[in-house]
Design goal:
With 311 residues, the chain is α+β, with helices and mostly antiparallel strands. The protein has two domains: 145 residues, Aminopeptidase; 131 residues, Gcn5-related N-acetyltransferase (GNAT) (Aminopeptidase, 3-Layer(aba) Sandwich). The protein contains eleven helices and 13 strands. Strands 1, 2, 3, 4, 5, 6, 7, 8, 9, 10, 11, 12 and 13 form a 13-stranded mixed β-sheet that branches. Strand 2 and strand 3 form a beta hairpin. Helix 2 runs antiparallel to helix 7 and helix 6 packs antiparallel against helix 7. The radius of gyration is 20 Å and the shape is globular.
Length: 311
């Protein structure tokens, strides 16, 4: 790979067709790297491109106090390098090609991006994060057999609730539920982020790459809500939760079980897109998933005063 062949391209000059073809060709490509998702969730993004879109790396950026920085958009667990079979040297060349005008980085690479800090020329810090993945190769009875005992118990106990799943609920309704239930804990997620997510979800549905769900009580009241994205490889658990009444009866267990049942045997991977929060990690592990690691890269090359403020 010729490092000089990696070009920095502004979003306005990116060929979206070739970009998305690169995502399709990468067996580890994700929906987060597709042009429609980035356009919706990232007000400003450019990219590093190798050759004729053989491999690409989106650069989501913003500006504060006149300083440009790279960051991870909300509801986008990881990005990284996409394209031809990737090896540590190739990943490092992309990282080394990031323009020096970006003085601060806080970005996450997908779990299949091999990172070797010794190959990176910048003074970066690499932090390991965790996610949970579940292969949906097997039929549902086999997958359900691998659930943890506590999950099986919850699912047995909620049978009496007579929950049912409704698909295609309005995106705005789903986001209202999410904001009401979790807005106090997620104060940094403001109206603009929800507006971007609404745009992203609507476009995803138009492309056949997103679906909305709700779990309801027999009287039609909402117990849980869920937004997932999908492509030829995976199901992405992007956003969801339960109402107060739904939490009391394990409604989100019912939701995830219903999605697994729907996509069992498809060969896709269910990406829980969880976190290092113990309670969320515990829930994700209840369905027979495997834990994987991915890397978050931090770099602080800010001017001295701003560097102190950023600590």
């Amino acid at each position: 790979m010729d490092a000089a062949a990696i070009r920095y391209i502004k979003r306005a000059d990116i060929d979206a067709g070739k970009w998305d073809a690169c995502m399709d060709a990468d067996k580890n490509g994700t929906v987060y790297g597709r042009s429609f998702y980035l356009d919706a969730m990232a007000p400003c993004w450019d990219a590093l491109v190798w050759g004729d879109y053989k491999a690409v790396m989106p650069l989501v950026w913003n500006r504060k106090f006149g300083v440009r920085y790279l960051y991870q958009p909300y509801f986008t667990i990881s990005l990284g390098v996409f394209g031809e079979p990737l090896h540590p040297d190739m990943i490092a060349r992309f990282i080394n090609a990031v323009p020096s005008k970006f003085r601060y980085w806080d970005i996450a690479f997908k779990e299949t991006d091999p990172l070797v800090s010794d190959l990176v020329e910048r003074p970066v810090k690499i932090v390991t994060r965790t996610n949970h993945l579940l292969s949906l190769n097997d039929p549902y009875p086999v997958l359900a057999c691998n659930y943890k005992r506590s999950a099986k118990r919850v699912l047995r106990d909620i049978e009496a609730q007579a929950f049912y799943v409704e698909k295609g609920i309005p995106v705005a309704e789903l986001l209202r539920h999410y904001s009401f239930q979790y807005g106090k804990q997620l104060k940094k997620i403001g109206p603009q982020v929800y507006a971007r997510m609404a745009q992203c979800a609507e476009q995803g549905r138009a492309l056949g790459m997103a679906e909305t769900y709700s779990v309801k009580f027999p009287d039609g009241s909402v117990a849980a809500f869920y937004l997932m994205f999908r492509d030829q490889r995976a199901i992405y658990s992007v956003l969801g939760g339960s109402t107060d009444a739904g939490k009391k009866h394990g409604a989100f267990y019912f939701m995830i079980d219903a999605i697994i049942k729907e996509y069992a045997g498809t060969g896709k991977t269910f990406r829980f897109e969880g976190s290092d929060v113990p309670g969320i990690a515990f829930f994700d592990a209840q369905f027979g998933s495997r834990k994987v690691s991915y890397s978050r890269i931090l770099m602080n090359d800010l001017p001295a005063l701003l560097r102190l403020l950023k600590r």
